[in-house]
């Protein structure tokens, strides 16, 4: 019968060698990334006696939450420091990048292309090259080793990418919409706040995910500029893992690592569909 023939054809198409190869590659890639996470999770619940037995992939026979309590006690101060750093270091670059992208896309001031080229070049300058000049500037300004210092540094390094994202996103917005707002008497800030900003939710989510992830996972800038009282979670995690006193507690190290990575992972899982939508919208025009 025609219906059965069509079903048989579809089944053959579903199990072609190329499709099986793609599935095998995807499964191998997922296993490659998920296996270390599995080992980290089960190790964090094991007591040290079980860990010393060497059964890396075995589930814990006597699961315990004590490593998690110890890990949180070691990095909790760094967690709140990272929150205090990440919030302004995300909000400020996004706002400035949105204004820059809006101005470069619609108002086109004199020298706009040159300014955009300078900002774009800033995205490719290695962080390590700029550390010493920034240390010198912060020290002479009297803010080195403080919370404002690390926030300013993250704002500086986040501005080029944020401007690029919003400029490309606003380039995909019909110019007739901007012209209609101008005819209705809208000025620079009114059009931006009432027209452009409400349309920018997808790219704002993309920018927030990228900026929060970059700031939260940063180590070198936090170590250099934050100061002893404002060290982020990544620096304190390094101090926990690389301690030279006592016995190396692998279960505490694994729990501390998972706690440090929990915020970026949660953001990706919650906002994943917005991330894909925003990237696609911002890639329409360049």
From TrEMBL:
Subcellular location: Cell membrane
UniProt xrefs under InterPro entries: MetI-like (IPR000515), MetI-like_sf (IPR035906)
Pfam families cross-referenced by the UniProt entry: BPD_transp_1
Protein name: Sugar ABC transporter permease
GO CC, any one term: plasma membrane
Family (UniProt): Belongs to the binding-protein-dependent transport system permease family.
Topology versus the membrane: Multi-pass membrane protein
Transmembrane region(s): 20-45, 79-102, 114-135, 141-166, 187-210, 249-270
Domain (ABC transmembrane type-1) ranges: 79-271
KW Transmembrane (keyword) present: yes
PANTHER family, per the entry: ABC TRANSPORTER PERMEASE PROTEIN, GLUCOSE IMPORT SYSTEM PERMEASE PROTEIN GLCU
Keywords: Membrane, Transmembrane, Transmembrane helix, Transport
GO biological process, one term: transmembrane transport
Species in which this protein is naturally found: Massilia aurea
């Amino acid at each position: 019968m025609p219906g059965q023939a069509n079903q048989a054809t579809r089944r053959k198409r579903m199990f072609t060698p190329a499709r099986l190869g793609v599935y095998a590659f995807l499964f191998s890639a997922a296993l490659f990334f998920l296996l270390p996470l599995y080992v980290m999770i089960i190790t964090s619940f094991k007591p040290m006696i079980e860990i010393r037995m060497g059964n890396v992939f075995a589930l814990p026979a006597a699961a315990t939450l004590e490593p998690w309590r110890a890990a949180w006690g070691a990095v909790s101060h760094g967690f709140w420091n990272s929150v205090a750093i990440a919030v302004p270091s995300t909000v400020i670059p996004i706002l400035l990048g949105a204004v820059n992208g809006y101005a470069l896309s619609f108002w086109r001031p004199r020298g706009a292309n040159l300014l955009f080229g300078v900002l774009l070049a800033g995205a490719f300058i290695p962080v390590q090259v700029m550390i010493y000049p920034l240390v010198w500037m912060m020290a002479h300004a009297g803010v080195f080793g403080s919370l404002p210092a690390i926030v300013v540094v993250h704002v500086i390094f986040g501005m080029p990418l944020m401007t690029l994202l919003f400029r490309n996103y606003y380039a995909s917005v019909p110019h007739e919409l901007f012209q209609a707002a101008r005819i209705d008497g809208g000025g620079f800030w009114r059009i931006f706040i009432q027209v452009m900003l409400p349309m920018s939710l997808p790219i704002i989510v993309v920018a927030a995910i990228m900026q929060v992830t970059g700031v939260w996972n940063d180590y070198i800038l936090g170590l250099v500029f934050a100061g002893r009282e404002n060290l982020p979670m990544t620096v304190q995690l390094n101090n926990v893992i690389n301690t030279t006193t006592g016995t190396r507690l692998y279960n505490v190290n694994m729990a501390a690592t998972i706690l440090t990575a929990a915020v970026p992972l949660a953001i990706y899982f919650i906002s994943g569909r917005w991330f894909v939508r925003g990237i696609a919208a911002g890639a329409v025009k360049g």
